[in-house]
Amino acid sequence: MLATLIGVLGDFDLAEDALQDALATAVERWPRDGVPDNPPGWIVTTARNRAIDRIRRDQNLRRKTELLGRLEEEEKVDESTIPDERLELIFTCCHPALAVEARLALTLRSLGGLQTDEIARAFLVPEATMAQRLVRAKRKIREAGIPFRVPPDHLLPKRLASVLAVLYLIFNEGYGPPVRRELCAEAIRLGGILATLMPDEPEVHGLYALMLLQDSRRDARVRDGELVLLEDQDRTLWDTGEIEAGKRALDRAIALRRPGQYQIQAAIAALHSEDETDWEQIARLYLRLHELLPSPVVLLNGAVAIAMVEGPEAGLAVADSIDGLDGYYLLHSTRADLLRRLDRRDEAAAAYRRALELTHEEPERRFLRRRLQELGAESSPPFDAADSMP
Amino acid sequence: MEYLLLIHDDESVYATLSENELSSLGQEYGAYTEALKTSGVYRDGRQLQPSSASTTVTVRDGEQVVTDGPFAETKEQLGGFYLIEVDSLDDAIEWAAKIPSARGGTIEVRPLVPMQVPAQ
Predict the structure, then answer these.
(1) What is the ipTM of this complex?
(2) What is the set of domains in chain B, with CATH numbers?
């Protein structure tokens, strides 16, 4: 309903205020006069009228004239067919002219069910900071003339990519560690809405599938605050409903026959949820993904899959060929794991220590220390006293 | 809405261009300006003299201070502008991307505050 009002009024703040007014009026009148035939239509019409009242009182003459002019031009809202403007809204919230953090916040606030304080908590910033971020984003939309519309065809591919990136960033913020379930749930819900509104876009289904498949492992991924590797997870904790929904979404994507990065990642996640993992297929998919999205991180994942098919030596050769990841702890923990399997214990211990230097997330650090202990090595060089204290 | 497209460019690059390159760049700008006019979005547009021709003026406590040079010493300098009127930021961005200097330099897309509408 908020999306509809933003569409009708062309102003985020005004729409939010007007909706509040209309809901307050409904609470007052409906018990007395009875619920109207079309409650959502009634709310939208009432909110629009309240908005006009508000604009008339507005001291800012320029904005007043402009808004009133536009509203009075329009016909009375047809209560029977409330337009679904969520798609326009999501494209506006994810516009590339907004800072990335503003896109995340605005999408969650406008399309998600989250209040400003909840979003602030999820992103670990003070509520005042988040409120300010939202105010600035809404002002930029108004002052810069960011349009409220689904982009025309020639702009659509790039802009849809921006929308999908925002949803996946929200999901990953929540996927953690630290895990924040409400963000994953919102990202999936929005992904589902987008898949309904844009049924012909394979990457939309692909992202939806990917998020469902990743989320299906949430209960098995962390045990007693520790991160559990995929191969060590208790599969009975996997959410089979979500896995099935994810595979259905992936089937819909593949049927459209236009592959893309999210579909490939979802396909990899789907293969990981089978009883027998087809590592050969996974290795192939990572190499295909690397063609579409050249990234050392993708290649690193490919190295892991190749190690599963051809042995740790082959995987290590790929991992050692990767440039530009020396500051990334997963490169070192992956190398360490491969070296451990090759029984090159000293090199493995050195790589685990390098990984430990590079991550500050406690569950990951505990995991790395445990692996080091299993190698019979000190978790830290002796001069670093802090880590060996009880 | 009206947008000012501010063209920031590294001036020193122009000194390295040959006569031919300069003239083909000039033709490109001519064609671009013509396209703006044909589409009916053109309001104004000019090339600026180099920043070495710039003078900065401040008045502090009634004291006028005049300094040689531009407002800020940066690698890219303001070299020209277009003023266009289009429906939304998306259109302004599309036009900005077509400015020849967008390839090497940077175009800032700045919306104008609308003119005050007189009270009725």
Answers:
(1) 0.85
(2) 2-111 (3.30.70.1060)
